[in-house]
């Protein structure tokens, strides 16, 4: 597939870009964006802030398990893919610490998606149908929401789309390797594009080895700085999910708690699963059940009827030049079953594939149109469909954005925390990412019990404990047994309360300083 752009196609891609700008502006004005609203966005925000201040990929939000490896905090970040935090850091450095800086990378990614989807669809469809795909992309509620709320989906979707287009083009294999490497640095599950690229190279009729070599060289050129960084801090070169994070992800699901791992020396990944085979099977079972529960929501928010997606995908193999792209997309989707079930049973992993599903849906609509040989104007029917889908998209996004309301209470609470605490020690919290972002202090994830709290305090200078009202973020509340424990009462004192289920305890030493 040759990628060439005519002047008329470029003009329409600009119009789609402007349409996305209008939709995004209406969305933001209708539902004000108040900043980070969940642990992912808080974590990305504090990482970007640290990068902007010259600390590079260091996190002030530390899990107890990380204390087994890096007692000093801030600690090297070993969890997040680095590209999105890097862009947040650049944006924060250029435009200052504000919500606009945090939103900018995601919003720019979202604005580029409709014209790119249009240009891709134009390779296979008429202008009218390709335009429909671009408009559907512009009004998609999932990507609109995630891009505006400081999530990596917008950037990941853009890079995945460009990488798959590159793989389908069969040109410039070094550049394709660079693109797939960037996608992998945006989301670690996209590292699976590497074996897909090898398969595409091997399917070529000539020069398979040379193409594999060029593709691999491009990928490793992108990953070498990240691998060198990991080696320099003493962890595995590829990405550190292989040692700490796999174990952590294995233990946060029901029946296995993260903090139980603090008392032991975590083994290697292979030996961990060999010693605890039930954990892996439990995760697969739990992930499968979660997919069954959550997938209908993703199906609903795709804006299109699933039969059209399947019809378009099947008919794509019969359309000239589309079969290869179909095969690459399906292969990439199939590979996502591994992280979807084994690591994280969350359909958000599939969100970056929405552009391809929209193109398939348009292909399905076009196939039905050809079969029934309708005589009416395409423009009238498509306009009606898009109006209905646009209303559905805005309604869905507006309902989701309502969740942001009330988050400002955490920022207000933490402003009080900063005023009350005199000690420069870390704050233990059920929302350490929010603590780190809003107060620019070191924060440690709240331990499960007093014994593990004592272990944390042996490693870290603790100034106080802040308990929020965001209990659905994987936190544990301090029950009566915790609060009434003799060690806790001797070490901490309640100095302020911020409303229902929100309190601040500080160390006795810091409390005495306040007297």
Description:
The chain has 515 residues and is mostly helical. Helix content is 63%, strand content 6%. It has 24 helices and 8 strands. It has a 6-stranded mixed beta sheet. A hairpin with a 5-residue loop joins strand 7 and strand 8. Helix 5 runs parallel beside helix 18 and helix 13 crosses helix 16. It is elongated. The chain starts with 6 loop residues before the first helix and ends with a helix. About 4% of the residues have low confidence.
Largest sheet data: 6 strands, mixed
Estimated structural class? mainly alpha
Using only C-alpha atoms, the radius of gyration works out to 25 Å
How much strand? 5-15%
Residue share in helices?
Answer: 55-70%
Which sequence of strands runs across the widest sheet? 2-5-4-6-8-7
**Tally of separate helices:** 24
Annotation keywords:
24 helices, single chain, two-stranded antiparallel ribbon, 515 residues, mainly alpha, six-stranded mixed β-sheet
